[in-house]
Amino acid sequence: MLIAGIVLTLKGQPPTEQLTSFVDPFIGTEGAGDVFPGASLPFGMVKLGPDCSDKSSNSGYVPGGVIHGFSHVHVSGTGGGPKYGNILVMPFTGPFQPGEIQSQPSNEQASPGYFAVDLTNYDIKAEMTVSRRVGFHRYTFGNTNERGILVDAGSMLGEHHCCGEAQQLIGSEIKVVSDTLIQGYTRVRGGWNKGGEYTVFFSAVFDTPAKSFGTWKGDTDSPEKASEYDSGEKTGAWFFFGNGSKKAIQVKVGISFISCGKALANLRQEVPGWDFDKVHQDAVQTWNKVLNTIHVEGASDDMKKVFYTAMYHAMLMPVDRTGENPKWHSDEPYYDDFYAIWDTFRATNPLLTLIQPNRERDIVRSLIDIYRYEGYMPDSRSGNQTGRTQGGSNCDMVVADAFLKGLKGIDYQTGYEAMIEDAEIPPGGNQQTDGRGGINEYIKLGYVPAEYEPKGKSPTLHTPKLYDRAGTRTVEYSANDWAIAQVAKGLGKKADYEKYRKRASNWPNLWRRQVNDSGVSGFIWPKRRDGSWVEDFSTTKAGSWGNFFYEADAWEYSFYVPQDAQALIDSCGGAETFVKRLDTFFTGPNYRVDNEPSFFTPCLYTYAGYQYKSSDRIREIIQKHYTSARDGIPGNDDSGSMSAWLVFNTVGFYPNAGQDVYLITAPHFHRAVLDLGDGKQLEVIASNLSEKNRYIQSATLNGKPLNRAWFRHSEIADGGKLRFVMGPKPSDFGKENLPPSLSDME
Amino acid sequence: MLIAGIVLTLKGQPPTEQLTSFVDPFIGTEGAGDVFPGASLPFGMVKLGPDCSDKSSNSGYVPGGVIHGFSHVHVSGTGGGPKYGNILVMPFTGPFQPGEIQSQPSNEQASPGYFAVDLTNYDIKAEMTVSRRVGFHRYTFGNTNERGILVDAGSMLGEHHCCGEAQQLIGSEIKVVSDTLIQGYTRVRGGWNKGGEYTVFFSAVFDTPAKSFGTWKGDTDSPEKASEYDSGEKTGAWFFFGNGSKKAIQVKVGISFISCGKALANLRQEVPGWDFDKVHQDAVQTWNKVLNTIHVEGASDDMKKVFYTAMYHAMLMPVDRTGENPKWHSDEPYYDDFYAIWDTFRATNPLLTLIQPNRERDIVRSLIDIYRYEGYMPDSRSGNQTGRTQGGSNCDMVVADAFLKGLKGIDYQTGYEAMIEDAEIPPGGNQQTDGRGGINEYIKLGYVPAEYEPKGKSPTLHTPKLYDRAGTRTVEYSANDWAIAQVAKGLGKKADYEKYRKRASNWPNLWRRQVNDSGVSGFIWPKRRDGSWVEDFSTTKAGSWGNFFYEADAWEYSFYVPQDAQALIDSCGGAETFVKRLDTFFTGPNYRVDNEPSFFTPCLYTYAGYQYKSSDRIREIIQKHYTSARDGIPGNDDSGSMSAWLVFNTVGFYPNAGQDVYLITAPHFHRAVLDLGDGKQLEVIASNLSEKNRYIQSATLNGKPLNRAWFRHSEIADGGKLRFVMGPKPSDFGKENLPPSLSDME
């Protein structure tokens, strides 16, 4: 069904290729990737795919797992308590056996905007495609048994998750409006972000009139009963269509977070007819368009598969819910499922700024609008509710990144207000949700002390423990402060610039020089309010919300000073010692590829003048950890964060997020053309590149020599040509003119 | 239509009188009362009444104002930005002229559960009655013009209010399901509590099939169009029924905060038929039942009117929304529209504890359940969202009042947890919403300092100002701490008791002895962090959220030490000086009868041994400020707070809320019988009472002499007989055995 090969050639632009053919949505569905393999548009609100086995999978999907049905709202690449899995549709053959309807899968297929599987228990081929807010199902029944389809308004993922992160049903409603229309909703709270209530409304339109129907509430099935009102229980409905014929039965399910009426309007607007293949082709074209924003040459098909699947994964989340915000009415865009900014600010947001600037503009505007109406920008958010912060207030990085890169159409004055709110206003009872927990102490002491313990019973809180991320918070708050300082400078707020620039150098307050491990000394370490160090701690102690470090250990966090690598190098004893430390780190057990705090660490060699070592590390990481196999993503994809990291690094540079600086990490492709929008292109050429010739010998930018291993966004913002000459050995490239650090600057 | 006189006599109990005949819902609709005169059950979710003039009235009603229609959700006796006014129904005669449909009123009638008015523009008699969640309309058309009825899902009150307290439409939806059924909803945010979104769903069923119909969205009217989905605009629908006949057209409107399906279920469950008079009679009986919990004898009909209307007003709010909570599913009761606890904890909640213990139990349970799911009990709440605190965390008083009076069926362990949350956990960014703003400083310094300034941009915040209620907070936190101490003691938490008992004596930290005014010295005064007093301040400076005192001045708040009147008397220079101070206060300009902080102040004479002066003051206040006229309530009724104050004081005693103590204030009736539930009665008899014989000479409780002007709840909890002998002159009654104060106790 897919159109292979070249579709269109625009004048002077690379041809629009059928790049969807290089996307395999199953990559990352095995191992720890947790990616969603079902049908979705880029940033699509409807993510239609199977919910399997015991519905404890974060994406709904379980390889080979028994299928309960296909639900319309999912997230991709996430951990913790599952969220969503709402409005489940399942075809079956009669009779209707409540609670028993499920099937073994066979012959699963997935491609952008399409998912198919044979339901062997019933001899049904299930296919699905999507528009932004509509799921389109096509069920072909293979035998002549009585054909049935159910719509379950009570189904969800993660009902039995631990740790207060289970989803809980508040209520649901179902109504058989006619023999071709079922409407209803599910209202749920909880999940990973311990969020309040969210409601998913639907209108399901069938192309074949039902011959009989029924509804259920709780354990009671009622044939011929047309509606079940919401009394806090699970409800659903089934249609029977009589005995089988070869003709498929199609169902379109409009989804809305506003109302059933809106769901129906969405359906009518986006998918007026019954042409499944047309909707599918539209989805493919939409994906092709965004995939074609990076055109690569000189890569194996396998590498292209890895690369374009990564691009695909980096564009599944956050979710565009513009027009679907039940909480306020504004003219701003609305995005949800930031899962979390802590993951995505490092690579995903900068990637969008580069190749989808209008999309990133809208995302930033939505974050600022959340601040307008709720008081803080979120670090994580899902189901219209801000969840826990992971560490710092990293929306600050996102706003600064957009500002410094000149992204237009954003109210930066209000964005700056929101950053100051993060930096100054204690979130109090919600110290785990909004802004910066422990901010008063950070301001007063210059670090979050070891005794820091957020108190309170807010339902979004974990049971408070000593240290609550005091280490992660201190280093990230320092980086966030530098983001604020730069925006302050750009907005002409000189005093603020000085203030936050100073605060950006708070991280050394937790640098304990005396700690030694594996020949390396100096680590970020827990310090008490009175200035004394905690002794009962180790360099390899990682943790989660309740601990000193979040999701990484002292080895990893002691490299997290993106705003001032030079000062970090000095603290570590100079460039040579620092490079040794990096070597020890990457060859030892403490580097974890799947861990965001270390995303930028390979680039740190470049700050010490060793660009080629950055390049080597990255090449090694990619070769070792990224493949086109189903377990080809290292760890949770984290809303596409792992994937965005790969995209940048294979193209040949990597952003220092929250700055206008890219580090050159060496291309994996002979040629890559990035579409920056408005007809602007950035061309990256690697002459002589081969597996052997992988070291940069020299570089030019727009024809002029580039004697440094970094460049500013402003240098390529209007497009340009970055040309590298590659060779078999490391050169002096990047030895001089080191990338900028805070402590170098005026 | 009302049945006059005595209905039923139970064995040994006072006869059930038709006490609704003494209720005039118009009392308090003129002047500043802001009470709602429409149809409601006790604590009823549906409050059906007219929305008038420019819809800027808090109750919807404006005396003589042009009527736009009758909407289903209202509050009573409130100030600030209006809330609700949702789902408006209006009859008219053709043609349909959008935006022009309104009428002058004539012949307004109101009684419990019933409202009627002639719409003179159209010659229509409009009548309405209610069940808990259903509004029942009966429209009798007086001429033969084409009869129409519209349902406006976009109408609301207070759209143009200032100060960030305006209501804002998020969206609405309407659907003409059949010629007798219209469904839809309105989603709104804002209003007095600056709340987030709430959604009011409805199902309107007509007894007469429409002959034609139409719908509108924004400014576009669409005849024959059956639905308007939610795109963020105002929507509505109209029905035409052809030319007139004498037969009335009836409409039942089921309301729900869950869904249209639930609204229809509510309608079918509560009002299955079309017998308007029956539904009206049921409402009257329900009111009669709750009014008959106090049976009074020996009062003029006018006094009875004042008294029973006050009882009526004290039972309009909060609103029983059990089964209608869209935010979580629990088995606990759910109440909304606490507007605010700061107003009602003083008299309304203690009144319910006494005569409607099951109702009060359910209210307390709902407050604790809000803590369970949201982290704090509310001080104010409306539209399912907690709004600003007025001063202290006065839910503590409500829980303590219930606990100390032995109210059964409440999880006091969790209630105590919620109190500790208030007392210990800084609400941070929401310092104006949850818990106790400035709690860290209160704990550290023993007072909230003058410089206290809640920072932050939370949408629920006013623009922060210096002093943010530091004075109100300090005195109320001290009183709240005593409430906690007493519960701690009862739960066997000895260390906590000692801790909070100590904190309950924090108020003198703001007592500035040197301030003099009108011969009186010593006032609560703003003090800085460093211990120095603010000089630029005055004893008569009252304010609101941004000021040192909330809604009262230093004269008033310097009497607010309900937990330790004895220490206050000492601070003021002893009993005689204190009584002079009270005299100066009550005869001067600073006492404001409509002001909750002074509700208890008349009782303070009794703590100095002058019961008769308490009695005199109260009698004077009632005679001066409470009448049966339409402006007969002094100031905002504040959700019935003014009314509950009157009920207690006319019966003859008044609670020290948050303690198990009542002060005897002298009866206004020869006999009052209070139904305490479970067949228990408290009889209050005033022998020889007359306008002249208004002083208590002696008292007995259950036949034994009562040599004190107060008693404990435990002394009357199982019922009892309180008998006073009245005389023409003050006696020694209450001179000895003064009521308990914290500083008297072990």
Strand order of the largest sheet of chain A: 7-8-9-10-19-14-13-12-17
Oligomeric state of this protein: homodimer
**Main sheet makeup of chain A:** 9 strands, antiparallel
Q: Whole-number average pLDDT of chain A?
A: 94
* Low-confidence regions of chain A: 1-12, 457-465
Named at the architecture level, the CATH assignment of the largest domain in chain A is: Up-down Bundle
Largest interface: A-B, 55 and 55 residues
CATH class wording of the largest domain in chain A: Mainly Alpha
Please, how many domains of chain A? 2
Query: Tally of extended strands of chain A?
Result: 34
Query: Separation of termini of chain A?
Result: 59 Å
The percent of residues in helical segments of chain A reads 25-40%
Shape of chain A: globular
Number of helices of chain A: 18
Structural Rg of chain A? 26 Å
CATH superfamily heading of the largest domain in chain A: alpha-1,2-mannosidases domains
- Helix-strand makeup class of chain A: alpha+beta
The fraction of residues assigned to DSSP E strands of chain A is 25-35%
- Give the CATH topology of the largest domain in chain A: Glycosyl hydrolase family fold
What does this structure look like?
Two copies of one chain form a homodimer. With 746 residues, the first copy, chain A, is of the alpha+beta class. Chain A folds into two domains: 34-288, Beta-galactosidase, Chain A, domain 5, CATH 2.70.98.10; 293-664, Glycosyl hydrolase family fold (Up-down Bundle). Helices cover 25% and strands 25% of the residues of chain A. Chain A is built from 18 helices and 34 strands. A nine-stranded antiparallel beta sheet of chain A has the order 7-8-9-10-19-14-13-12-17. The first copy, chain A, has an eight-stranded antiparallel beta sheet with strand order 3-4-5-6-11-18-15-16, with no helix packed on it. In chain A, strands 20-29-30-34-31-32 form a six-stranded mixed beta sheet, with no helix packed on it. In chain A, a hairpin with a 2-residue loop joins strand 25 and strand 26 (520-524). In chain A, helix 7 (395-404) packs antiparallel against helix 8 (412-424) and helix 10 (470-490) runs antiparallel to helix 11 (494-503). In chain A, 63% of the residues are buried.
